[in-house]
């Protein structure tokens, strides 16, 4: 299936000479949730702004559902809804007027029933006549989402959607994103909360210093780069790790009760089975054991560390 | 080609409506305050000082200053309406939505400039009505009067739009109206005929574009003008074309919008 967004050879150098993006190539698949991860200043927002038409790129091409973002900008932009990072709303307009304005701006005929549905889905219906300035931070964030959804976009960009948002709203938002995906909306979210990407995304892209350093299936990424840990609870404490087991580079807990063996799928360290055999042979008996997968966060930190 | 298919008229309407709604929300600031200040001009210039000034070109002083007063408000309000309308979303950041919408530059200009010009035209007509309470008014060429009113409102709304895009701070936003437009209007013959000036100052004054606006506008009222109407109209159109050219350049380059 052809990708819904195709970014090729996109660069951006600001007037100050700062090169925000170096040769970005990226394809977003139709209907997926794609998480763009990266530290602050990596170029996430610049990339989104270029696709949405807010910032001019220096070179390269971008198409949205086959429409060039310059030549066919109307068709391209009509498909996109954007929820920016900052809460920027006309403070003196009512919720209803703000959302209806957005719909009109995107060229859609007035549809009060649809606007009502969007507001209800986002628990803003009670506030429809309230001025934006009177809303709480979480409600303002929801209003921004309502604006982005008002024109029935096929692609939704969420730039740091849960920055500074409380746990409950974060759960609501994830729920909403999943519902949208079920309706066939493609979702691209940027975040530096790895847990967000881990919980939501089908695929993950990592951007650092203006370059995409990796794009992969989330599960694949965790399988390839994720480390696993085997925790072995000992029956009786050890003073030191026996010499014979040195090739496993085991870590011993301070109380001598627990051994930790870290391994990953790429390294040539021996497997768990051989460790267990060797423990047995060394006369070390264990009470219990457990394994842990490393989180996307650790993968991410490791990736950035490898960067020159 | 069908206009509806070629243009995003719904977007133009959406922006225009929000701009007009703002004027009604801030009715005190948008409408009442210019009416009060115009009345004050009439009290001070028309009655207190005007009673000591003889007629100019056979027109009573109170009536003579009406076109100039309307122009004064028309210019400053067109500029401040349009510059604020585009600067404010830039300032709070909500401009992202406009830039990401399927809206052409032409549509953006039509909506914002149309909104600003509509407001200042309404204001001009309110001032005209207010003035008629103070002095007997006579409009010799009503169609031309409206034409000058609309042309000037559109031209200076465009100019204000340019300032709004150029400005990086509220201070800069105020700078041009305060330091350039207000002096040019006061020195452009709002309160006197430039024929009353010594020759050298009269020549200098002819470099002031506002002279042509006020002169042409006054001609539409009383059939008398400082410079010929053709030149007035020509100069106004030239200024309009310059503003259009600058706006076209801004949009072609993304100047201070998409960079």
Automatic annotation (TrEMBL), chain A:
Residue runs in coiled coils: none
Domain annotation ABC transporter: ranges: 5-234
Keywords (A to Z) from UniProt: ATP-binding, Nucleotide-binding, Transport
Keyword ATP-binding in annotation: yes
Family matches, as PROSITE patterns: ABC_TRANSPORTER_1, ABC_TRANSPORTER_2
Listed GO MF terms: ATP binding; ATP hydrolysis activity
SUPFAM superfamilies: P-loop containing nucleoside triphosphate hydrolases
Family listed: Belongs to the ABC transporter superfamily.
Name the UniProt record assigns to this protein: ABC transporter-like protein
């Amino acid at each position: 299936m052809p990708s819904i967004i195709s970014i090729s050879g996109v660069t951006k150098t600001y007037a100050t000479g700062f090169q925000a993006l170096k040769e970005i190539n990226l394809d977003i698949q139709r209907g997926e949730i794609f998480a763009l991860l990266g530290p602050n200043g990596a170029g996430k927002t610049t990339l989104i702004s270029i696709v949405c038409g807010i910032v001019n790129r220096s070179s390269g091409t971008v198409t949205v559902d086959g429409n060039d973002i310059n030549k066919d900008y109307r068709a391209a932009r009509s498909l996109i809804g954007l929820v920016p990072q900052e809460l920027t709303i006309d403070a003196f307009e009512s919720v209803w007027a703000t959302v209806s304005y957005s719909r009109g701006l995107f060229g859609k005929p007035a549809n009060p029933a649809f606007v009502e549905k969007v507001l209800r889905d986002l628990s803003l219906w009670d506030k429809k006549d309230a001025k934006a300035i009177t809303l709480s931070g979480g409600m303002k964030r929801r209003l921004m989402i309502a604006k982005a959804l008002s024109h029935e976009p096929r692609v939704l960009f969420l730039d740091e959607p849960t920055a500074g948002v409380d746990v409950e709203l974060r759960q609501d938002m994830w729920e909403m994103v999943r519902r949208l995906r079920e309706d066939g909306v493609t979702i691209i979210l940027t975040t530096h909360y790895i847990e967000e990407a881990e919980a939501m995304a089908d695929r993950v892209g990592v951007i650092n210093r203006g370059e995409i350093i990796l794009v992969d299936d989330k599960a694949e990424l965790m399988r390839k780069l994720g480390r696993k840990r085997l925790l072995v609870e000992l029956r009786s404490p050890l003073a030191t790790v026996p010499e014979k087991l040195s090739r496993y580079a085991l870590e011993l807990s301070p109380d001598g009760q627990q051994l930790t063996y870290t391994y990953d799928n790429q390294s040539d360290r021996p497997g768990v089975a051989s460790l267990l055999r060797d423990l047995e042979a060394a006369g070390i008996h264990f009470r219990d054991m457990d394994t842990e997968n490393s989180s996307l966060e650790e993968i991410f930190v490791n990736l950035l560390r490898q960067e020159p | 080609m069908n206009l509806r298919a070629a243009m995003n008229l719904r977007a133009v309407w959406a922006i225009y409506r929000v701009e007009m709604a703002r004027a009604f929300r801030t009715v005190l600031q948008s409408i009442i305050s210019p009416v009060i200040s115009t009345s004050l001009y009439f009290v001070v210039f028309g009655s207190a000082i005007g009673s000591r000034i003889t007629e100019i070109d056979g027109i009573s002083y109170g009536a003579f200053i009406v076109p100039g007063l309307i122009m004064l408000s028309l210019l400053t309000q067109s500029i401040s309406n349009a510059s604020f309308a585009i600067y404010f979303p830039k300032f709070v950041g909500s401009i992202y939505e406009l830039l990401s919408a399927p809206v052409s530059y032409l549509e953006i200009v039509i909506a914002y400039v149309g909104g600003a010009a509509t407001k200042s035209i309404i204001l001009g007509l309110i001032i005209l009505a207010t003035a008629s309470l103070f002095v007997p008014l006579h409009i010799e060429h009503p169609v031309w009067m409206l034409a000058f009113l609309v042309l000037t409102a559109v031209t200076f709304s465009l100019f204000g739009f340019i300032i709004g895009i150029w400005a990086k701070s509220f201070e800069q936003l105020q700078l041009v109206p305060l330091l350039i437009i207000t002096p040019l209007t006061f020195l452009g013959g709002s309160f006197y005929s430039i024929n009353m000036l010594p020759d050298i100052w009269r020549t200098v004054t002819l470099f002031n574009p506002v002279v042509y606006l006020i002169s042409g506008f006054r001609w539409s009222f009383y059939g008398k003008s400082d410079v010929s109407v053709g030149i007035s109209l020509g100069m106004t159109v030239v200024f309009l074309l310059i503003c259009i050219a600058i706006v076209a350049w801004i949009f072609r380059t993304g100047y201070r919008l998409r960079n």
